[in-house]
Each structure stands twice: as C-alpha cells, then as structure tokens.
Design brief:
With about 600 residues, the protein is an alpha+beta fold. It has 15 helices and 18 strands.
Amino acid sequence: MDDKDKSKEQLLHDMSTLRRRIAGLEQVTPEPGECERTVKELRKEAERGIHLLQLYEKASQLTDKELYDFALDEVVYLTDSEIGFFHLVSDDQKEIILTTWNRGALKNCTASYTTHYAIDLAGNWVDSVRLKQSIVYNDFPASPNRKGIPEGHAPVRRFMSIPVFEGDKIRFIFGVGNKIEEYGENDVIHIQLVANELHKIILQRRSEEALRESEERFRSLVEQSPISIVIIRDLKVLYANSKYVEMLGYANTEELLCLPIKTMVASSSWEQFAVRALQREQGLPVETIYETMGKHKDGSEFHALVTTTRINLADGPASVGFVQDITERKQNEQMISKLNEELSQKIAQLVDAQEELVRKEKLSILGQLSGSVGHELRNPLGVMSNAVYFLQMVLADADDTTKEYLDIINHEIDNSLRIITDLLDFARTKAPQIQTVTVRALTDESLGRCAIPDTVALQTEIPDNLPLLRVDLLQMGQVLTNFITNAVQAMPDGGELCVTARLAGTNQEPLLQNPKQETGDFIQISVTDTGEGIAPENMSKLFQPLFTTKPKGIGLGLVVCKNLVEANGGQIEVESQPGEGTTFTVALPVARGEG
C-alpha cells in the first residue's frame, strides 16, 4: 500500500468517527447554541474529509494549476472566506511566485501584478513566510507591517495565511480573507490539514514523475549509450544495446541474440572470460574491471576493456557488461603522454606568468617610492661629495691613511649615486632625444667613461663604413658603459674585452632571435669578456628587476639598460658559457638614407 492509499484509508476512518460523534451529539441536550456550534464544527471536519478524499481522487486527473485551484476552493469554503490565494515560494526563500487566486478575489479586481514578488518588498500578507508560522489578522486594516493595497485590489477586512514547510524551507502559502466571523484555531487547522495533504500529493506527484523520467532516462541511456552494453546469463546473450551490435559489426540485435557469447570473444581469452562470467553469476568474488580480447563478426580481434557487475533480474541473476574497444586508446597512449608533458609546461608557464604579475605589482610600488626617495638622497650625497672634494683640496699634504679614507668615501658616494640613478631611471624612463651618431663615437664615448685596468686587454672591431645610428647618445652610452663595467668586473684577474659592431637586417644577416621589428636595418654592437660567465639557471633572471649576483648593487642596471634600448627602438640579447665568458649585444636602428 503506497502513501496515497494510506492517506485515503485514514481519511475514511476519521470520517466514520466524526459521523458517530455527530450522531451522539444530536442525541444530547446541552446549553443553547453550544451543541449547534460543536455539531457545525464536526460537520466542517466531515466535509473537510470529503474534500480531501476528492482531492486525492481528482489529483491524477488535474494539472498542477488545476490542483492548486481545487485545493484553494476547498480552504476558502471550509473557512467560510470570501477571497483566497495560493502562492509558491522560490527555493532561495526571497520571492513569492504568484500562482492563483479564487474567483472571489479576482472578481472586480483590476490591480496589476508581476509573477514574482520580492518578499522584502511585500506587506503583511507574506508575514507567514517572514515569521515562519501561521498568521491571523482579524482586523487587517490595523495589522502591523501594512504597506497598502494596490489600486484596484479587493478590500481586505480579515486575513489568515498558512505556510507549508519542506524541511526548513517554505514551499507554498495559503491565504484567505474576509470571513464574516473572526478566524479561529479551527480555521487554521482546516487550512493546515488541506495544505499538508496537498503537499503530500505534490511530493508524490514529483516522485512519480521523477521515477518515470528516471526510467525513461535509463532506457535512453542504455540504448543510446556510447558505451557497448550486453547482458548475459549462462554464457548466452539476453540483451545487447545498439552500440554493442555496431561495435561487433552485426546488422541488428536479432542477428546477435541468435549466437552464443563465445562467438564474440577471441579464442585466446575465452576460457578466462567464461570462468569469470559463471563465477560472477554464482555470487563468487571476481574481477569487475579487466582487459580481454573481443572478436568482430568478420573474425578480426580487438582490445576490449570490460566492466561487469552482477544484477538480479525477475527470472534470476545475470551479468551486465560495459565493453569498450580500447585498441585506438592503446595506440594513443604515447600521444597522451606527450600531451600531458605539454600541459605540464603550460602550467609552468602560467605559474611563471603569475609570479611575473606579482613581481610587477611589487616593482610598481618600488617605482613610486624610488622617485621621491632618490631625489631626497641625492641632495645630501651631493653635499658629501663636495665636502670630500674640499677636504682633498685643503688636505693635499695629509698622510696616506687620511687620503685613502677620503678616496673610499668618495668611491662609496659614487656607488650610492649610481644606485640612485638606476632607481630613478627604472622608475621613469625618459623619452629618448633621438639624434644621428656614428657607431665609433658611441663606443669611444662609452669606453672613455670606464676605467679599464692594465690586466684587461681591450680589442675593438668597429668598421668605418657603418651607417649612422638614430639613437639617444647619452642613453645608449649609459647602456654600453654598463656592459663594459660588468665585463671588467667579471675578470678580476684579467682577461680580454672585445667591443665589436656589424650591420644586420632584413637584407643582411638575421637580427637577434625573436626580433620585434619585422623590417629595417640595424647595427649590432657586442661587448664580450672572457670572464667566469653566467650560470645557466641565472640566464632567464638577468633582466628581472632586483636580481643580482653582485655583493653591491640592487639589480636594476640591466633592467634599466633593457628599457633604454627598447625605448630607442632596439633589442638586447645575452649569451654566456660558464668558464668561457659572456657577450651582451644590442641591435640599434640605423638612420635611413644617411651614413
């Protein structure tokens, strides 16, 4: 017996009990009016039982809307009300879904409305939702939380609303109004019982509908499944879906069902397959996922992955198998491995990109601070530099120790000024003042700024017939000076320093790798040392701000160089071999039509 039949049986029993009580009361002579009220209430209860029986009997014939209307008419009648409504509540409990009203409420009603009404904006007619309890306002005009009635709405004198819960959520509310007498506890009970039974019917209907949909989905899933499905018992095929038939190359299911399962399994795998199948049907423990060899109708064999389980059908146990042709999958395993490797590389690139983004955010803050801090530090350093110069002038005859300390102070001031200059250049790269200049002038000016010790052999290869450059002389001089200084510092025990230049471009030798410019001619200037070289793990970090391997400095020199080169329309590249040396190269644009 299902829940629906149990509810109907209980209602019939309650009605029989009520009839006996009514008959007994009619035989009694109580106080005037008391028996009449009691009998009236009992008759209402009996009528309620009849209405509920009708609700169950008609439910299967009614649509959802018709079912709501029928139940609403019942509660309006049972409570002797004139108007009533039934509204659903949204799952998030924030909106009332206006659903239906009885004829009395709609009579002469011209008020406009939307289908969804926000609970926060509604008046006291949704207090049962807000307070999560039954609400009775026998003097509705004087009730709290009134926000007025829309123009054209039926007048309301008395009002009662009942919420219906499912768990901790309200699913719908009944509301009735304008009873001649005051609403009482019996009215609440009438609506609550009807609402509860309606909710049971709704849940039963949803359950039945969900079951039907589930069965339909299951049938559709099995028949249209992209995976081959077969059911066997005693090594005979009971059922096979169209995908299984297609996979084996048969014309239709009927052709396949006439054959024993042995014809569909390769002879090399048959013995083990048969043992598994029989043991599974007997309920013995056996592998549920395994690989085997299947056989097509034409006799060709294929690799198969089988997932099986034991099922109980109406006429006995059987085995259901989900069969996949994995021949292609096995062939593609190597490709999948390669794709996984590429995916790992992409993930690593994403991680690097994220780290780069975080680094740029930090550098943005550094750039904002460096401008103001740099200027504040430059002024006192300038005073200190002047003071050292003055002391060196007036203490020309000082002892060697004093002169040495003055030189140390002066050297540290220069280092500090160089760091501050890097900070300022990094914070705000100035627009280049483009001019035409010879390569010789640029390299000579840069070499002249650097102190090259006697232990370093300098070699230059600057052809005289190179075209003129179009660059900012000071900025590019700063770049080459930085390269030369770094090269000298990389050879503390001496070595060879080579400065070379050559023409490169679309009609000459190729530019640096991955050039940004696609057309035009460039001059490549290289600074090469024979120092200790750069460790491979540091190559990718050279142009990252704040990266340095030197005991002094803050790691902005090469970053500034890169920014200046790119601002002048050029490119920068570095090559290095540990223990052999390093080459920094810039490609700078030539002056077209000049030279």
